[in-house]
Amino acid sequence: MGSHNVLLIGGGGREHSIAWKLNQSDLLGKLYVSPGNPGTDIIGENVQIDTGNFEKVFRFVNEHQIDLVIIGPEKPLVDGLADYLEDKGIPVFGPEKAAAQLEGSKEFAKEFMKKYEIPTAEYRTYSSDQFDDALAYIVNRNKFPVVLKADGLAAGKGVFICDSKEEAVKRFQQFSEDDTLRKASGKVVVEEFMEGEEASVFVISDGFSAKTLHHAQDHKRIGEGDTGLNTGGMGAYCPAPVLTKKIMERVEAEIIQPTITGMQLEECPYKGILYIGLMITDEGPKVVEYNCRFGDPECQAILPSLKNDLLDLIICTNEQRLDEKEIQIDDEYRCCVVIASGGYPVNYEKGKVIKGLHDIDSEALIFHAGTSRQNGEIITSGGRVLNIVGHGNTLQKAIDHTYENVKLIHFEDAYYRSDIGHKGLKYNR
Ligand code: AMP
Ligand code: GLY
Fold it and tell me: Ligand 1 pocket, 196 CB below 6 A?
């Protein structure tokens, strides 16, 4: 057993995969996960800390001799948990509040990109007292689709792609009427629609040096063929063949480096995982969004491909020694399929008994998300329930391996997309 006691914050599939990867490190001492899930409980110890209460987190860290806090989700980062703990001398992996604004405020991100000439969609921002002007701008536009975005965090529900003037007006009115959206969108960003294929790049940075970990493609919509409502993500695969070596060189030169340097110049160096959502347009790669964390479910596909010791990388990041490290990724394709409760992302039932968890083959991985343990059984307790990750030396083999195992898992009303990864097959990989 190593000497580094870690507190990992979060309880989704992403955090299970982080816990699984940390557990392979010789440097790991005791691992606590808050709130965790039945998957993380087997690896470390689940603890229930009210992570919205920073003082309680600090107290736990002190009482349990925690050497490092890893923050999985965006909310505690945007709320400033990293700042609070670092002020008290606790090493944290995750950006400080000012840097997390890259995800926490769309307006901040857009202004930042404009200032540092990072390619992204043209935009205008309107504050709530300028909503009449925003409406007039939308009504007078002739170019659709147009994209409307709430400024703040809106749990994936703050972005509307409007195909017509009528839809844009209707959606815009929701910004002024819907309570949650209004809270998130004291301001609204009106953005040009970018045509192209989406992909995500994951970067680790110590504020000064930045290294690309890997890239992936997510499947955000609930329905086959990318139809229906947006979700947290129904599946992912890596690597993303659309990101050829040539495109990645442009991403690094035109997007990653200027972002890291820009954040230094803004005096909020970016430390942690930076997730860059890209649109690969005819003009080249452009930023759709920044996130200040790993993607879920992209993380579940990426971490099994990473050959480096994750804890060692994180420690080097915190000691500003990332430049010493070379990121090593294996040659495999990986596919992650999310099994959800029927009805997600709207209404769904919980408490369904899950069968088949022990039937999957030894090469496939299960990462828990919305599950609980009850009377010795694992039951569903959320919308996205489980993540199954398979692999292969071609994308097709990775997809086949994943679905062979997905089919072994059963619970009432289980739902999954059967086309995860298919959009990558056109590249013949
Ligand atoms: P965001 O929360 O900004 O990532 O937006 C959610 C999703 O909306 C993205 O993953 C894209 O699929 C889509 N999207 C956002 N902005 C644009 C844009 N300017 N052009 C095209 N699609 C967009
Ligand atoms: N999979 C999308 C996200 O984590 O935001």
Answer: no
- Domain range list for the chain: 4-94, 122-192, 197-426
Cα–Cα–Cα angle for 269, 275, 279, nearest 5°?
Answer: 120
What's the predicted TM-score (pTM) here?
0.94
Strand pairing report for 68-71 and 4-10: parallel
Nearest ligand, measured from the Cα of 273: 2
Check whether 155 has a pLDDT greater than 70.
Answer: no
Dist. CA 375 → ligand 1 center (Å): 42
pLDDT digits (tens, 9 = 90+) for 83-99: 999 999 999 999 999 99
- 294: CA distance to ligand 2 center in Å? 8
Distance 175 CA to ligand 2 centre (A): 22
Q: Write the residue with the smallest CA distance to atom 19 of ligand 1.
A: 193
Which pLDDT tens digit goes with each residue over 320-330? 999 999 999 99
* pLDDT tens digits, one per residue of 206-257: 999 999 999 999 999 999 999 998 899 999 999 999 999 999 999 999 999 9
- The atom number, within ligand 1, closest to the CA of 191 reads 19
The residue whose C-alpha atom lies closest to atom 4 belonging to ligand 2 is: 295
| CATH number, span 197-426 | 3.30.470.20
State the pLDDT confidence band at 402, using cuts at 50, 70 and 90: very high
In testing the pocket of ligand 2, which one of 74, 275, 300, 337 has its CB within 8 Å of the most ligand atoms?
A: 275
Residue list, ligand 2 pocket, CB within 6 Å:
218, 232-233, 291, 295-296, 298
Of the options 3.30.430.20, 3.40.50.300, 3.40.50.20, 2.60.40.420, the CATH number for the domain spanning 4-94: 3.40.50.20
Rounded to the nearest angstrom, the distance between the alpha carbon of 355 and the centre of ligand 2 is 27
CATH number for the domain running over 122-192: 3.30.1490.20
Say if residue 32's pLDDT is above 70: yes
